[in-house]
Fold these 4 entries.
Entry 1:
Amino acid sequence: MASIRRPHSPAKQHLLRHHHPFVTSSPPSSPLRHSSSSSSSPRTHHHGGYPHPFLFFTRRPLPRFAAFFLLGSFLGLLHFLSHLPHQTPHLRPSSPNPTAVLLPHHQLPIVRLHDDDESSDADRNKLLVVVTPTRARAAQAYYLSRMGHTLRLVDPPLLWLVVEAGKPTPEAAAALRGTTVLHRYVGCCDKLNASDSDDGALRFRPHQMNAALELIENHRLDGIVYFADEEGVYSLDLFKRLRQVRRFGTWPVPVISENRKDGVVLEGPVCKQNQVVGWHTSEHVSKLRRFHVAMSGFAFNSTMLWDPKLRSHLAWNSIRHPDTVKEGFQVTTFIEQLVEDESQMEGIPADCSQIMNWHVPFGSENLAYPKGWRVATNLDVIIPLK
């Protein structure tokens, strides 16, 4: 049944036409015509009675809030991206104690010198490569822990190359991880496991240090190489001085000797400022050597291993520790491959008047120690409680 509606007055129709947003401009029709054509009226044509879906969108608060929120987020993201730097700045190490990791061969750090006008900044960023030969014995955990806790106080970057005489052991690896020092633990010279004497350790030690030199040369580690025995005692000032070495640096080292009354043998260079003018030694046999330097009394730039300009006199040969030279002459033979004379050496510190490290001989090597450094059974009570 058709509905009968009362038509509006002409004045009211004029007001509705100019002020109502959804009123149509079509002339009024009769009630019967309006009822018959209601299906085609613009007010009831799809979208719930609205002429355009956007009008429905603007009349709902939740979609309107979501639209402006997304628009504001997009504009804020554009502003943030426009203020990003075009080049990534160089990141300097900030933590004094880097996390200890076992690096694979293809992930060894390659640190280059920075193109900086201030030499002090270049010295602070110089990589230190500390090479330590070791072997499984009773005091290995003590030596590695003491050495590692000394190196953790050194400013980075520092890489500790620990070369085991034989296959790497899980006990030594656990001790190295406990020091929280960036290190690389490798094995060498499996035949050394059959010999626990001091002579066997000294005989295979050149092979261990050569394994470290091959690793440094193959990966082009640009830094200062220093051979630090695990039995030695080192000051933090030594590692600060090492970063000042340009090519080859040396200094005096006292060696504890059980064959002398005073118990100490001082060996090393005599310097006038930073120039080496002579040598001091207390052993008559050592006077036959060319350079009177202890193994822990020198450091050199690693680029000398592969740069022919820094070693023109031996540019055709690989620099390695000789394994066929008589004991006592291995250090001087190795140094002769790096420098020609004292004019190419740097005495550190000035006048070589400061003792920065001590060389301590091997301790007891034949002590029995539990496997894995753990006691499997309870110990016997020697002194019972009363």
Note: The chain is about 25% helix and 15% strand.
Entry 2:
Amino acid sequence: MSSTPRVLVSLVAAIAVALSAPADAAGASKKAHAAPRAASSTGAKRSVSKAASRKAVHATRSRRSLPAIAIPVVDPGAVAHDAAAIAREFDGWLDEVDRSGGVAGLAAAVVKDDRVLLERGIGVADWSTGEPVTTETVFRLASLSKAFAAALTGLLVEEGRLHWDTKVADALPSFTLADVEDTQRLTVQDILSHRVGLPHNTYDRLLEQDEPYELLVDRLKDVPMACPVGACYGYQNIAFSMIGDVVFAATGDFYYHQVEKRIFHPLGMTGATYGRDALESSKSWARPHHHAGTGWASFVPSEAYYRVAPAAGVNASVRDIEQWLIAQMGGRPDVLSPALLETLHKPLVDTDRELRGSPWKRGRLKEAQYALGWRIYDYAGETLIFHAGAVQGYRAMIAFLPRYRFGAVMLWNCESGLPAGLMPMLFDRYLGLPEVNWAGIDRDDDATDVGSGGGSGGG
């Protein structure tokens, strides 16, 4: 790379770091779960000290004084012709992550068209025993589970058992929201695209405190609406999981049975399951870990988000998710038809807050929207279909470029932000964009280092 482009890349990265400081500092104090911080059940406003207020004002002014980041645009002529070579480079980055000790364990795969270019595990499934992560080690997928709920619903729509505009109140007569008209308006499609109209992450905290899902759904009627149904985006886990109740009403069968029968089994996802008992019954499964001194310590998986299976209940290995990724990129029309995929990936609501997320998002995303169980990004001019997930002790990311049928998945068993930057590094290399070391890993080259990359919260 010539000296002039390197200076420009360094300038862009420096601006990204400066912009990320206030947001990342605030995010560091949050407990990451299956989605961003839950809405308070009491609605009480948090008091803020005068000193904190002055600091926030100063930070805001500082951000406004910085120039806007110039997001590059993909040149189709610069897109890699040898995807396998890009996968080999990604493999080298995994070596660096492994040597750094920055994760307890991680499994990753890179896929082009219907071919798996790379599948690999690094680190350990259980620090206490030293059991290694393999490509068949089962992880929790957290919010990557949402795409399975959307796909199952689509399959039932194709059969005529449901419709995207099926009213939730018709399927679940006891369901109510605070507003009667909104109750009658809410559709299946609204649930799957987070357009229920509730505040972000309503009642997630209570779910984490072991409140039963059924009770929390009943209490949605007590929550003031943030907007009319369909009018705004508000990420949900409780409300999203009502799709499981709708599926039961439509089929007379349990939600997870339907996913197993219609998705897991046809795609050959032999290690994919639902629930904590199934996770712990897997031949090899990744224990969740937290930092302990200079290493890691495993702990018992939390049960909370397993109670909302459509939102966060899937367990799977990276080998399983390779097949899911191939299907989502159009490689299994016998299971997921082209027409269904087009519907699942069609943007339905803007999610502008995503543009202010981690440094790589500020440096690459022009637009951010939500479809049905998937996030849709304009990544430097190219469509990127994406989702991230997080529950206590687990993280997951999946993304692909539909135009090029190139994608990747990463699953790891600790609350480290380090791997999150690898995904945009991979897509930058494939698309021929300026190199930025979004993950902050040690590398032999001198690509710009912007720190630890940062995750995507839970969703």
Note: Confidence is low (pLDDT under 50) at residues 1-67, 445-457.
Entry 3:
Amino acid sequence: MDHLEDAGETGAVRLGFDRRVRLEFHGSKISSDGGLLLFRELDEVLGLHDIARGVLRDTRTGHNRLHSIVGLLRQSVFGRLAGYEDVNDADRLALDPVMQQVVGGRAVDTNAASASQMGRFETKVRATAEKRAALAELSGQWIDRVHASAPPKWITLDIDSSVCPTHGAQEGTAWNGHFGCICYHPLFVFNQFGHLECCALRPGNVHSADGWEEVLKPVIARYADRHLMRFFWADAAFAIPGLYEALEAENCFYAIRMRANRILQGRIAHLLKRPVGRPPNHVRRIYGDFEYQSASWDKPRRVVAKVERHPGELFPRIGFVVTNLPMVPDWIVHFHNQRGTAEQRIKEGKQAINWTRLSCKGLAQNEVRLQLHALAYNLGVFLQGADLPEEVAEWSLTSLQTRLIKIGARVVRHARAIKFQLAEVAASGDRFRLILTAIQRLRAPPVPS
């Protein structure tokens, strides 16, 4: 195998299948994540980390502080967005020219933060209760900044839980019979744009709706004084009286699925009778609408029922939705059926951002990591909301990561300029320019004096 090596001055490696091919390694000059520069421009246009600078106080003492809190936060967020979900890669990323440029400050001329520095930032500097709360509120503040450039006419909130499997004696981890594993059981709130409004890490053995007040009420309060309609939908796990009362008190419209019971089925007994004659070869849907009060409710509420008869099936499929919407029953059922987008968003977060990677020993430290994953997810979704070129507009977050971020880049430094030479494989120069133009359109209009 001597022919594989070429001990020249350049340290190049020669391959045997073609003697003309030589490999040279220039880690400090070449990056595999050139597309992160687009997201750094998005960060700058929206002023996202300017918000973080005013929220995340730096309580470190001493003079050995090479990087600011905002720089460390950028490295955590952008690293996760590029697929580096753990601090184990920080030593290599510290020498990456794109990551150095993204972090800014001293990192541009020296190095970004090392693995030990990032570890202290994520497990010690941010792990106190006060700092975790500030970090958890940052996602909502970033979303408000995005809405400032294009105010929505309504907001629809969707709450759902998920599973984060664990593989060690981590604090708060427990067996969950529904998921069939030892895990954490986080809770997420999304809006109709796919933005992650808020999330919380919970022990693995809690109910799906446990702790909904701490996650949902701050989100509702953020939109309380805005002139827009507010909607909410959820699965049957969140069909609890306290949630109805909280939404009604805030004048928020809701549609929440209910589990069937004997009383509810008795109210629609007339819809369950099998029609006379040969059944058709298409799905038939019948809707019901009535007032219902459970023993635990403070007042009667409207319940919409849907009865579906499918070809070849003996028994109908029945569903119930409790709601305060004034629309007709079929509109309400169609509105509620759209709530499956939360599950898709959670799946995308797992695949692209890998926010199930919560490997710290303490629950507080893992909560910090989940909030950092949430910020990385939102940063990626914010670009999806821009007026992107048609061929890019339908890309998922995973596609944006693999086809737009993972682009080879070579840095060439001059006295007055830093050039990044990007590979035109998945994204051409023209496409980059169109995306940058779309990012500039997201800049919020100046506030009149």
Note: Confidence is low (pLDDT under 50) at residues 1-9.
Entry 4:
Amino acid sequence: MSSLTPPERLARDLDWNLLRTFLVLADSRSVTEAAERLSLKQPTVSSALKRLEERLGKQLINRKPGRFELTAAGRLLHDEAIDIHSAILRLGTAIRDVEDEVSGHVRIVMASHVISPLFDQTLTQFHKDHPRATLSIEAMASRSALTAVAARRASLAICLVMERSPQLEYRRLFREFFGLFCGPTHPLYGREGISIADLAGHSSVSFVTDQMDDALRPVAQMRAEAQLEARIVGTSPNLEEVRRMIIAGLGIGPLPLHVVREDVERGRLWRLPPYEAPPAIDVHVVWNPHAKPNRAEIAMLTGLTDLISRTPMEQRIYS
């Protein structure tokens, strides 16, 4: 009997749990953070990474003081491991009653007015492939969406994330950038050449999550740097209502640049400083791996995460 080739030996001996641990490490800022997300002790996670690196004969993560990033080999493994993870999810769908058509209900909770071609494409393909399955989509504050997923009241969430729970799984869907805007009746509307200092003392409106300890912390920091009036005149968890208050002249407020581009072009909104380095916010897909999903939920999550893994990050950045 001929001996196994190195690739065949690797396929036989490699432990999937090591790859799953590596995926969490690759999406974390430290071994400690990864251990918390996996509900494991730090030495256990460090040992898993060491075993994987020894098995592959390559360093996968640069771990030096103040530095924690994937090496070239680590980036390659990350891409391949995502494909393997997606294949396993698809397998779970394929082996469940393979002769039956997929049915069931998918409840999606999400931050308001999420604009994502990837998500829209997933909905189109999901309905085409599984016409008997049903969907419901409910907009709510990101914190409430995460609570619903953790409590297994929702299939998945698409929302902002401040702190990650080790009980949930996360996949970044896209990154968006925020700016400050005012409406046509505001005294700063239409003014060119103003600086951020000109915003000081003006009234403001914003999202309920626009706080230093919540998901829109970078936006809260931007408002603080603009020295807007500390008292927020109006708040809402819904982007459309924040936009409404800004257009109505209640105050200056933050909005995603790509979402309101048409409003700016049509003169309904006027962008204000800062123009450079606008705060970036990541929108994530979040699900509960401890839930018992129906076939429709598995199909939806598999389709969305697979599309994310096949779409380069630069195509998922909206400014």
Note: The chain has a mean pLDDT of 89.
